[in-house]
Amino acid sequence: MDRETRVFAEKHFQGLRERLPAKISRTPDCVDFIENPDALSYNDFFKGYLLPNVPCVFSRAFTESWGSRKHWVTPDGKPNFDYLLQNYGDMVVPVANCGVQEYNSNPKEHMPLRDYINYWKGYIQGNYSSPKGCLYLKDWHLCRNSSAEDVYSLPLYFSSDWLNEYWDAINVDDYRFVYMGPTGTWSPFHADIFRSYSWSVNICGKKKWFLFPPGQEEALRDCHGSLPYNVTSPALLDDRLYPAHAHCSPPLEVTQEAGEMLFVPSGWHHQVHNLEDTISINHNWVNGCNLAPMWHFLQQELHAVQQEISEWRDAMSDWHHHCQVIMKSCTGINYEEFYHFLKVIAERRILTLADGMDTGTTGSVGDTRLDTQQAAFDVSRITEVLASLITNPDFKRVDTSAFSLQPEQLLQQLEKIITAAASL
């Protein structure tokens, strides 16, 4: 990030604080298609897509060198089952049944990849039908058990990835996934975890995306307040079941071809259909640009838990603690872990800035180059959200006595480094 982009970004967020928040985002008329890798810098992407939170599609030229595009695909553009079996056949993968609705998702089972590929071959031979149903390999953490070096390289535009930086640091989880499935497999209507960004690359095959900007999903709720499972269902036209549907703008529809890369902005609900036998690689990621929406989402999640078990509030002395436990079970994170997430990311930026101010050099975080301008921007965003977290009544009830660094101390460090970095 250069200084001009950092100043531009900080003015952007200052403007957001001074305006009333928009309830519903306008649906763009189209999605930008970026053809030439040399035509878009990181700073261009940051200012043109991350900050305004709008999608774009990158051409296949951006992923031409990926090992997966060379080895996972046959010369005629189909999944290379032989290569996948030889290299990953014994790995156990999660598989969803697209024909069975379980709440607003699909039930999953686990099986060796070779069993799934044998099913897939039989599904094709059976004219895309099987007694086992329509099965979709989803959320396979391939890179947790295998090197990604020969599979793909992280695009520069998505390199400020705090989610994977944090979970790599504590060696617990990651948000890097492989999806594989035959024609007809699909993902029901949803927004990504923690209101993260996502990027998705089709290694082979074709996807159809239905994208709704933040706020539009509210008009899709049924008469009970629930979001739909399938936004293409004719049931949505019944105004008795979906009384506000007429107020929802049509979705932004994107057909993603083989090799192309789609950037899905934060908080955009979407539904995805595989139009051909398809393999894709996907990441979820958070950074300074969508940290505040993540924090807002976590507050909503805790409130929902509190509402659900409100009848036990007076009967349980540790009711607030149980709400945090349930929240983590349902959401994957609670307020305590959110603080630790901020702390890990913040401390690495503080080190980068301290080193940059002493030597004028660029620091590094993991495999991502982190320059001083990016670090300074990150610190400013963490400081704002941390200050909100500290004053939050529910966070005040969290026992922080065992924390290695008290939240107020971290906030003081961040405010001090912001002052020192102002001249960078």
UniProtKB/TrEMBL annotation:
GO terms for biological process: positive regulation of translational termination. Gene3D superfamilies: Cupin. Pfam families: Cupin_8 (PF13621). The keyword Transcription regulation does not apply. Its cofactor is Fe(2+). InterPro entries: Cupin_8, JmjC_dom, JMJD6_ArgDemeth/LysHydrox. One of its GO terms (cellular component) is nucleus. It catalyses: L-lysyl-[protein] + 2-oxoglutarate + O2 = 4-hydroxy-L-lysyl-[protein] + succinate + CO2. GO terms for molecular function: 2-oxoglutarate-dependent dioxygenase activity; catalytic activity, acting on a protein; metal ion binding; sequence-specific DNA binding. Residues 143-302 form the JmjC domain. Keywords: Iron, Metal-binding, Oxidoreductase. The keyword Phosphoprotein does not apply. Interacts with ETF1. Interacts with the ETF1-GSPT1 complex. Belongs to the JMJD6 family. This is 2-oxoglutarate and iron-dependent oxygenase JMJD4. The gene is JMJD4.
